[in-house]
Amino acid sequence: xxxxxxxxxxxxxxxxxxxxxxxxxxxxxxxxxxxxxxxxxxxxxxxxxxxxxxxxxxxxxxxxxxxxxxxxxxxxxxxxxxxxxxxxxxxxxxxxxxxxxxxxxxxxxxxxxxxxxxxxxxxxxxxxxxxxxxxxxxxxxxxxxxxxxxxxxxxxxxxxxxxxxxxxxxxxxxxxxxxxxxxxxxxxxxxxxxxxxxxxxxxxxxxxxxxxxxxxxxxxxxxxxxxxxxxxxxx
Length: 235
Description:
Elements: H1 9-16, H2 19-28, H3 40-52, H4 59-68, H5 79-84, H6 89-97, E1 102-109, E2 114-122, E3 141-144, H7 151-159, E4 163-166, E5 175-181, E6 207-214, E7 217-226, E8 231-234
Parallel strand pairs: 3-4
Antiparallel strand pairs: 1-2, 5-6, 6-7, 7-8
Helix pairs in contact: 1-3, 3-4
């Protein structure tokens, strides 16, 4: 299997976590009362990188991550001054994350198992703005989460010769043309209904394969009941 190419996060995150803004916030909350070796931007970026891995269990892990993101060994911080600054981290992080939240948009090629693009934005930015250009999707399959659903884009993708599998959002409510249960048996009583009319009272099938119609566009929806969550999911 071809190894995954890793895109360094530091430069991408630094574009969003502005150094001047972080420095001002750090001074206001008391993180910086005198000149420190541990600068707020470097600290915030290393904390996010360390905690996002899911295997960070100690301050020593945070310290290793911080030094690992330094450009040279000369910029490395010894453990003692790093731990001294630890007591004021909470104030800094609380002050900062009251005003900022981010999303990371990643385009991953399942053929090469490598990321092709990554953009870090404020969480208020629309996911749809970061879909690939339709002209690049000929004879390709798009897999995306519910936030990326854009029916105009998907219809153009189909015209371009591409395909898609996306998770349905809560607002998805097309008209059902035909319906089949998980065993392939036709369910004529669902024809003509809206997707949201299908619930545990109207149909007890665990999986329903639907041919649906919305805005002059016909497509397929797989409707599945998840017992653990007591909810339907579809895509």
